[in-house]
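#help-structures

NK: newbie question. if I give both the sequence and a SMILES, will the prediction place the ligand too? trying with zinc ion
OV: yes, paste both and it writes out the complex. here, I ran yours:
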Amino acid sequence: MPELPEVECLTRAVRSVILGKKLDEMVFHRPDLRWPIPMQDLRELIAGKTILSVERRSKYLLIETESGYAIIHLGMTGNMLFSPEATGRWNHTHASFRVIDDSGPVGYLHYVDPRRFGCILCSSRDALSQHPLIRNLGPEPLETEGLDEILYQRSRGKTVAVKNFLMDAHNVVGVGNIYANESLFLAGVKPSRKASAVKREEWTKISGAIKSVLTAAIQAGGTTFRDYKHVDGEPGYFELSLSVYGRDGDPCLRCKTGISSSRIGGRATYFCRRCQR
Ligand SMILES: [Zn+2]
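OV: that's the protein plus ligand as C-alpha cells.
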C-alpha cells in the first residue's frame, strides 16, 4: 500500500508535470472507484483551469484550481503516471487527463489502480477543510512545528498502546505500521506502553524519530515518476533500510539482543526488549 513517503514523492512528481498548466480534457473509463467519481463536478472545478498548487494532505493528493480541488487517493494499488499518449499503456487505467500549457498539449496524466480501492473526488475551495475525508485528519508529521507537544497533549488519558496511538490518523497522519515500529525503536520506547504513560521528553524523541524515518523514506524514493511505477503488481514500499521491522530474532543493531516480536492491535510489532522501555 502506498504510504506517506510514496504519496509525497508522487505529489512532487505530479506537481512538476502539471503546476501552472491545465487539465483540459478529463476522460473517465469507468464511473466509480471505491466511490462514484463526480465526473461533472470535476470537469466544472478542475478542467480548463490553471493548476495553482499540487499538495499532499495525509495520503491524499490535492490538485488546486481557482474553483476547487481534485482529491485523489491511491488506495491499495493506485498510481498516477504520465505519458505522451492519450491512452495509457497500463492495464487498469481508469482516468486520463490531458495536460496543456500555452503552447498546447504536453501529455496525459493517468490514474491507474488494479484493485480500485482508491478514489477521485473533488471539493469546492470553501468546503475542503470540512470534507469528510479531510476534516478529522491529525497534524502532518513533517510540516508540523511542535508535534511532540501536540502528541503529548493528545495522549493524556489515552490507555491505548503508544504504537496504536501513533497509527491513528486522528492523532498524527501518515505513520503506518512499518513507520510506527521503526520510529519507536529509534526513540527507545516500547510499542506496548500506554500512550498516557509516555513522558514529555519521550514524545520529543518519538516525533523526531517519525520525522527522520519518513524523511529517509522520501529521500530513498526520489522525485520522479520512474521511482514508483510497480503498476502491475504490488506497489510495495520504497526500499528502506529497516532497523527493527521484520527482524524477529535478529540481533538488535544497538545492543545485539535478539529482536522480539508480538502483535499489537492485530499488527506485526517488532522491538528490542533491552533498548526500548
Ligand atoms: Zn537493543
